Amino acid sequence: MKKFFPIISFACIAVCMSSCNQTKSANEQTSSSANNTELAEFINKIKAVDNHTHATTMDPNDKGYDALPLEALLPFELPARVRPESPVWLAAAKAVYGFKGNELNEASMKTLADTAANVMKQKGEKFPAWALDQAGIEVMLANRIAMGPGLSAPRFRWVSYVDALLYPLSTKAEAAVTPDREKLFPLEDQLLKKYLADLNISKLPATLGEYMKQVVTATLEAQKNGGCVAVKFEIAYLRSLDFEKPSLQSASEVYSKNINGGEPTHERYKLLQDFLFRYIASECGRLGMAVHIHSFPAAGNFFVATGSDPLLLESMFNDPELRNTKFVLIHGGGTFSDHTSAMLWKPNVYADLSALTFLWSPNQLAHVLVDWLSQFPEKIIFGTDAASFGPGLGWEMAAWIATTTGRQALTIALSQMISNNEISLSRAKEIATMVLRTNAGNLYNLGLK
Ligand SMILES: [Zn+2]
Q: Does pLDDT of 143 surpass 90?
């Protein structure tokens, strides 16, 4: 019986708080709405750091914006909020390009695409920085194979891809698991070839020890020297996030046995991938690069949602040898947000809001934010996942939509926390600044003023 007492007392507090809210005087209500307006104005002025995007360069043939571009998996269904007919695109068109129409149809879309193309032509390599100004973003992390024209520091910072390093052996059997993976694995094979070519290596080394040093560490060090602040795993598209901790010896056996053209079983290959994943995470800790991990139950026609649950990463987060590595759950686990909440207890785990700010409404996101921000406000990082959706619907439009949504969601969540007497207005402003700017600034040592 005893253990029920706390529940009863929590219930009493809840009843009291709701009746207190109902009996708020007119004066209190006016001051709460003034607080909300002041908070919204404050939040709208914060110069943001965007943790995750696929910004494109000014090269018209740019292909480096994603190691696993989602176009490879089209057609698949998108949530209603981001379909081309959604009003969020019209709002972005008005805000970014001064679009005058009242709807986006085939004809007006052509006008919008022409306007965007003209602005790009006129601004040239200054276009990406101009796009950041439209959304109130000071620094954007670009998750790309390589940076390129227009995407230069300090406003753009590089996040590379490292999944390809987990797959030195034949990926034929891994690719056959789903029709999506059949399309994705050849892209990882190509990227590993690029990494080898960058290192002037024509043949994979004979032993795992040599592969780790000459290929994995050498690639990570080159990325660090190239300005990388973090590396990204899109691995949930390729396999589940459960990484065990195999020995070097057992991983070496799998590598040596198959490096000359063998076909390892799934179980044996997984063991090698698990070993390499932890090795990369540990090297990133040594080099001071954060590790980004896609954790979201999509996208594609055959995505395995259960494999993207952040709880699957717990044994890695709990590994004492990886405590120098900072992990960021990209897209915050999506609908697994309560599992992300559990992982935020780990000292080196962060979550970003990218994609959630784009796919979800401000209210849906605010609901999750109240939970995360009331517990670990220093671990939550703003992001957009801005990417191009075609002519007229470029990454700059997606960045504006997600930034606007993120600011609205923060205002709703923090206003609710003020109104419940959980935090003061000044603490709400502090938390908003942390989420939109300083948490990322500290994590990546961006040297923000
Ligand atoms: Zn992304």
A: yes
User: What residues sit around ligand 1, an ion, with C-beta below 5 angstroms?
Assistant: 385
List, as own/partner pairs, every contact residues 117-123 make where C-beta atoms lie below 8 angstroms and the sequence separation is at least 24, other chains included.
117/391, 120/58
> What spacing in Å lies between the alpha carbon of 385 and ligand 1's midpoint?
5
Residue 61, amino acid: N
Distance 202 CA to ligand 1 centre (A): 31
Cα(52) to centroid of ligand 1, in Å? 6
22 three-state secondary structure: helix
pLDDT digits (tens, 9 = 90+) for 68-116: 999 999 999 999 999 988 999 999 999 999 999 999 999 999 999 999 9
Measured in angstroms, how far is the CA atom of residue 164 from the centroid of ligand 1?
A: 16
Taking the model in full, what pTM does it have? 0.93
- In the numeric block, which tokens belong to residue 244? 């065990």
- CA 69 to ligand 1 center in whole angstroms: 9
**pLDDT bucket at 26, cuts 50 / 70 / 90:** low
How many angstroms separate the CA atoms of 356 and 182, rounded?
27
Contact by Cβ (8 Å): 271, 296: no
CA of 53 to the centre of ligand 1 (A): 6
Average pLDDT, integer, range 397-408: 98
Residue 335's Cβ-count burial label (10 Å; 0-12, 13-18, 19+) is: middle
Map tokens 């709400």 to a residue.
428
Beta strands 48-53; 137-143: pairing state: parallel
